Amino acid sequence: MAKTIPPLNPLRVFEAVARLGSFTRGADELHVSQSAVSRQISLLEDYLQVKLFNREQRGISLTDAGRRYQQEVSPAFARIAAATRDLLANNRSGPLRVRAYTTFAAKWLMRRLPLFQQAHPEIDVRLSTDVAPADFASDEIDLAIQFGDGNWPDMQCERLFGDRITPVCSPALLNKPGAPLQALDDLKHHRLLHSHYRSNDWPYWFNAMGRPDLAEHRDSMVFSSSILTYQAAVEGLGVAIGQISLLDQELESGALVCPFETVTRPGFAYYLLLPLRDTMPAKVGVFREWLLAETRQAAG
Hints:
The chain is an alpha/beta fold. It folds into 3 domains: about 1-90, Orthogonal Bundle (Arc Repressor Mutant, subunit A), CATH 1.10.10.10; about 95-165 and about 270-300, D-Maltodextrin-Binding Protein, domain 2; about 165-255, 3-Layer(aba) Sandwich (D-Maltodextrin-Binding Protein, domain 2), CATH 3.40.190. The protein is built from 9 helices and 11 strands. The chain has helices at about 10-20, 25-30, 35-50, 65-90, 100-120, 200-210, 225-235, 250-255, 280-300; strands at about 55, 60, 95-100, 125-130, 145-150, 155-160, 165-170, 190-195, 220-225, 240-245, 270-275. It has a 5-stranded mixed beta sheet with strand order 4-3-5-11-6, with helices on one face. Strands 7-10-8-9 form a 4-stranded mixed beta sheet, sandwiched between helices. Helix 1 crosses helix 3 (about 35-50) and helix 2 (about 25-30) packs across helix 3 (about 35-50).
C-alpha cells in the first residue's frame, strides 16, 4: 500500500496549484518560489509517469488525468486539514496562562498580543505579572518570561533578547534653559531616576563610560518599578536609564529621546521558560513559535 503513495511534498504542491489554477498563486500560498513549485510538479509527474498540467503561453490547465487526480486528492487534503483543526482545538482547550515581568508585559508583550489574538482567536491568553521566580510545580502557569542570566535548572529555557540600556529623557531636557543636557557632566544638573529593581543600572552605565564618579550624584528619585520610572522621564522629572528594547514606541513617537549614543549590555536577557516534559501542548507550542518569531523580528 505504502508504495502507491507518491512523495507527499510534491503531492501537496500539486493540490495547491490545481486548486488555485496557477503556479504563481500556489507558490504564494506555500511561501516558496515559482521555480520550486515547478520542480515539485515535475517530480510528481515523473513519479506517476503521467502529465498532470498543460503548460500554455497564458498559464496552465489540468489535463484530463490531472483533473481526475485532483478530484480524489483535494478532498483527502481537506479531510486532513479538518482533522488537524479538530485535534488542535481539543489540545488548545482551556486558557493559556502566561506570566511575565510587569515592565515586559506592559511595554513589549501587550503591544503585540493583539496580533497573536487575531491570528489565533481560539486561544484564550491569561496574562499575569510577578517578579518571583516561576515554579511550574506550584504555580498555575503554562509558561513564563523572566529576566536573568539564563540559569534556570530543571526548566526549558530559550533566550528572547538581551538587555540594552542607555539614558532616556524628555526631549524638553536637551535644551533646558540654564541646564542643557549635551555632555556627560551635564547630568550633574539633572535628577537621576532609578527603578528599585534595577538599582545597578546607573552605576553600570557610568562605569562603562569611564565616569564612575557620576554615580555619586545626589539628586535622584527612586520608583517601585521601571514603568513608573519611564513615565517620570516622559513627564520631564529627570533622566532615567532605559531598557531600549522595551521603549521602541516612546522613542519612535519622540516622547523619550536618548541624549547619548552609548548603549551598554549588562549581560542579562529576557528568557522564555517552559516546564520540562516529553510533549508540549499545542497551544503552548503555537505561542512559543509566535513569541520567538516576534523577538527575532524586533531584533532584526
